[in-house]
Specification:
Elements (H helix, E strand, L loop, with lengths): L11 E6 L2 E6 L10 H16 L5 E5 L4 E3 L4 H4 L4 H19 L5 E5 L2 E3 L1 H8 L2 E5 L3 E3 L13 H8 L2 H10 L2 E3 H6 L5 E3 L4 H13 L3 H6 L1
Parallel strand pairs: 2-3, 3-5, 4-6, 5-7, 6-8, 7-10
Antiparallel strand pairs: 1-2, 8-9
Helix pairs in contact: 1-3, 3-4, 4-5, 5-6
Length: 215
């Protein structure tokens, strides 16, 4: 696995294989918590993939145990209002780099996808998750709210009633519940998530790129 165009990232891994651009969150000691560096590096890779004709599809993933556990609160809590505003702007830029990407984006989720992790899933086009995954928007429990677009994207995927329930309570939900409410495309065993995502990527890569972009 060669680094994409020789780029050296600190918090993600990025590489291209068989026309698929991979973005893997890589802060295992912090449970892939989202900080400003991860946001900047993810945005850089996503924008590069969007412009690269060799990349047909993008897969975003974490490691075997966690997709992304939300904001890095150790970094966020000390922020002054100006710094917090810049952080939220960076979150929005990253998630729009997913949602508005010229290439289809597949979220391949194993383990936890909480807060910004779930917001990343919600911004993705195709969502494949492990049967042992836990998801949620728990921001309300620490005195904040899903500021990365979760309050807007969640109701687009599920009913407004369910969206408000999970946003207001901060409750977690499992993979079976996510599938039942129509939040995800597929639930598969954890050891099949990446293979399933790659299979979907191969299917999509055979479609017309302009058609996919405009669809």
């Amino acid at each position: 696995m060669d680094a994409y165009k020789g780029k050296e990232y600190k918090t993600i891994l990025a590489w291209v294989e068989d026309g698929v651009g991979y973005l893997q969150f890589n802060r295992p000691k912090a449970m892939n918590a989202v900080n400003d560096v991860l946001l900047a590096e993810s945005t850089d890779a996503l924008e590069a993939y969007s412009a690269d004709p060799e990349v047909k599809v993008i897969i975003i993933c974490g490691n075997e145990n966690v997709f992304a556990a939300g904001a890095d609160l150790k970094a966020v809590y000390p922020m002054n209002p100006f710094e917090a505003r810049n952080y939220i702007d960076a979150v929005h830029k990253c998630l729009f780099a997913i949602e508005d990407n010229h290439k289809p984006v597949i979220a391949a989720v194993r383990g936890l996808a909480l807060g910004g992790g779930l917001e990343t899933v919600l911004a993705s086009d195709i969502r494949i998750i492990a049967d042992n995954s836990t998801l949620g928007l728990p921001e309300i429990n620490v005195g904040i709210y899903p500021g990365g677009g979760g309050t807007q994207r969640m109701p687009r995927s599920v009913s407004i009633c369910l969206a408000k329930q999970y946003i207001f309570t901060g409750d977690f939900f499992d993979a079976a519940s996510a599938e039942k409410m129509g939040l995800v495309n597929m639930v598969v065993p954890a050891d099949e998530v990446m293979a399933t995502a790659k299979k979907m990527a191969r299917r999509l890569s055979k479609k017309g790129m302009l058609s996919l972009r405009e669809a």
